[in-house]
Target: S41 family peptidase
Amino acid sequence: MVCRIILKERHFMKKIIRNMTSFSFVISFLTMLAIPASAITVEDVKPIIEEAYFEEVDESIYNGTVDDVFNELDPYSTYYTDEEYNQFMNSIEQSFVGIGISFEVVQEGAFIQYVFPGSPAEQAELEPGDIIIEVDGESLNGASSEKMVALIGGDVNTTVNLTIKRGETTFNVNIQREEIQAPIVQSGKLAGNIGYIHFSSFPGELTQMIQQHKQALNGVDGWIVDIRNNGGGLLTSAQKLLGMFEGIDTTMVANFKEYHDTIQTIDQDEKFSKPMNLLINEYSASASEIFAAALKDYEKATLFGNTTFGKGRMQNLFDLPEGGIVKLTVATFLSPFGNIIDGVGVEPHIKTNQPLEDAHWDQLNEVFEYNVFQHLEDINPDHQFKITLNQKADLETFKDKVKLATLGGELIDFEVDFLENNRYEVSPNSSLKSGGEYAMYIQPGWTNSEGRLANEGAIVRISVSE
Model:
């Protein structure tokens, strides 16, 4: 998390102008490795470090170059030129020049996690799971995320040649870099009247965006909020977003070198009130961890996924008199109830590698409170489902109450046929997805052949074979 401070103010720790959290593998994010020593001197940065750095440092670090100084500090402390700072802020707003991907660093190169719709990467038919192994002939094997960002990014309307590994095949593609405005918030309604909201960073207008999406989904019975791969953004956005939950007073606790500070939430009129599940993973970092930890502490959501990144350090930004900005770690932060985040992360309640599907299944059970039948596993994609009732149903009313849903998605079409006695067959109109997760549920309200109303529902989870 960082906040921008004016260097000439002596008691700058109390004069926070701009607060933000930061960590992202999105292609637009820049963490500079090379500090231009010609632009700043050790004397420029020494007073900032002595007063603001979150822990004591040995005086010997000032004997070398500016590069040497920052190499001795933690990995989140660095120097930005004004241009690099603008790129950094644009990355939080998801506005940047590039090819339109987010990626994870692997040994071979940049493992593509997401391709932004309408981006040059999509037009070039890149896919999640592809690995960029070379950029303009330069290998990415063992490269840092910063180097990958520098090589893949560039100026608008310039072309980059990428060597792509897809499975066992390798091919090259030329892609023209463009200005990218990635969607920050995306939402929709899942089967069972469950609202889904995903956001990829914490920009300044996040809370207003979330409120607009929430209002568009008015009347849902539960929520799934997705902050997987969300690397952070503005602290004030986390404060405001947590203000949408009744009873959350504290955002986090910050431990500076010489004092502690409790950071409060910023109350909002619009509130979340329905049951909520929160999706997290190992790339949910910084502001995402503040948000997740607070919801967990105050028991406002059930967390699904994997333990978060563990970046529990807070950075401030300091303007230098001759230009440029120092980003310096000034504190560690804890959850509202004092739980350590730095180096540990936030653990989910439900550890799973399919958090969206599991969270959706959980919400369906929370909302419906139907009788749960034994999990159907290793089902063939072309399977036809047989249902045996304890009485013969009126087929038309029964058809209307049978639902088949993709977990993490919407209802799918199918046919219901009467077989014999009290047995019925449900046949999906198309094959189910290999490895997919589904739920079939029968709502109450159908009538039997004598016109009597069924007053209980049933639900079963279905796992399709690979």
